[in-house]
Amino acid sequence: MGRLFRILIVLAAIMGADGVILAAASAHQTDASRLASASSMLLFHATAVLAIVALAGRGAIDVRIGIAAAFGFVVASALFAGDLTLRQYAGHSLFPMAAPAGGTLLVASWLAVAVAAAWPRRG
């Protein structure tokens, strides 16, 4: 599990860096609300990924479900933020319904975190 935790930490750090970059870009461009939304999704969920790693590492949540939820946050945030960023700079979406698909996966991932906390852990 240590390797998966390290991968998630690296991905969360990249998400955080991208979130800061998009926040700066949105502050310096007119009509860049899409970038601000993309930045928020990345920053919030980068923190959530780090929290899941910490909780799973301490045994507070089911590790397998927690890792699945964390990877869900990574993929979903990439879909959501990638779609909004592409719309801002290229004028078209990543693919039809990319941002809503990302948002739906974010909701599912949050629910998976709840299940990971409620699921009986093996001693």
Record keyword descriptors for this entry.
mainly alpha; 4 helices; 82% helix; 123 residues
Structure overview:
The protein has one domain (2-118). The model has no long low-confidence stretch (mean pLDDT 95). The longest helix has 28 residues, at 63-90. With 123 residues, the protein is mainly alpha-helical. The two termini are 16 Å apart. The chain has helices spanning 2-28, 33-57, 63-90, 98-118.
Mean pLDDT, all residues: 95
Give helix % range.
over 70%
Q: Please, what is the oligomeric state?
A: single chain
Computed over alpha carbons, the radius of gyration is 15 Å
Cα(first) to Cα(last) distance is: 16 Å
Gross morphology is elongated
Strand tally: 0
Can I get a quick summary?
The chain is mainly alpha-helical.
Topology of this structure?
Elements: H1 2-28, H2 33-57, H3 63-90, H4 98-118
Helix pairs in contact: 1-2, 1-3, 2-3, 3-4
